[in-house]
Structure formats: C-alpha cells, structure tokens
C-alpha cells in the first residue's frame, strides 16, 4: 500500500468526526450495483437548523478491459456532472481523466483535467480547473518511507499569475494509528 493522495492525508482521523456523528444533520447514503456492473450511489442530507436539504444521484460504469470509467452525477442544485477517466492503461498507477459540470439554471459551466499517479512510494496529483474565471492549476505530491509521510500542495491562478495554495503536511501511519499535521499559510490566499 502506497501513500494517500494529499487531500486524503489525515482522512481516517477526519472520518471519526465527519462520518457517523452528525449533530443537527440527518444523512442518508445508499449504494447498489446491478448485475451488469453499473453502480448507483444516492445520498441526501437535511440540516435541521437551517432546513436546507441536499441530495445527489451518481451512476458509474467501468469498462474493465480498457480501464475506462464513466461517471454521471446530478444534484438537487440542478448541477449535472460527467467524468471520464482511464486508469492503469498507459502506465501502472496512472489515472488520466476529465470532468465537466453544467448548471442549466445559471448557465455556469466548468471543466477539469485530472491526472494522478500512485505507487508504493509516491502519490502525485496534477489538475487543471477550467472555469469561466480562467484556469487554476493544483498539484500535490506525497512521499512515503517506513511509515513516514511528507506532502506538499501548490495551487496557481493562471488568470492572476498568483500562487493560491502552498501547503505542507507531515505524518506517520501504521495499521493501528495515524499521526498527521498540516501547515497552511496565515492570511488571505
């Protein structure tokens, strides 16, 4: 097992508080898979204080012999999303894909090119987010050695030629526990 991608560092610790303990929030998630291999995931949350309700429906189909996955998502905000990805075909551990989303009510459109590579020693991500405000680039890498994890994440707004993220994380992981710390810059980003 290799290191997790940067966004998943400390995930097991966060899940202690984010999954199963929802004060003032009702949450329901359902997953099923057809005999033909199509996965259906649906979920909903209801905030008891604000009265807001959110739901989503996601379908996923994988063509295993080609490593291609098609994912469609529809939310109660009437946002439609599609992702197509290919994994382990060009290089073992490499995932390449694209995402598009569209909100018919507002006309908002966005697209994202995603790439990820993961093996026993390293996990790297490089994404380009293309929306109406211009491209944003996000890259990260996590390296592992004898249970120790070190990661760095950087974000760049190409429209403003400005670094938007510069985060560093350290951790130690075993089967019994995970120790994790992150350093984020103070002030406006």
From TrEMBL:
Compartments it resides in: Mitochondrion outer membrane
Spans traversing the lipid bilayer: none
Cell inner membrane keyword on record: no
A single cellular component GO annotation: mitochondrial outer membrane
Superkingdom per UniProt: Eukaryota
GO molecular function annotations of the record: porin activity; voltage-gated monoatomic anion channel activity
Keywords: Ion transport, Membrane, Mitochondrion, Mitochondrion outer membrane, Porin, Transmembrane, Transmembrane beta strand, Transport
Keyword field contains Transport: yes
Name of a matching Pfam family: Porin_3
Family membership noted in the UniProt record: Belongs to the eukaryotic mitochondrial porin family.
Name the UniProt record assigns to this protein: Voltage-dependent anion-selective channel protein 3
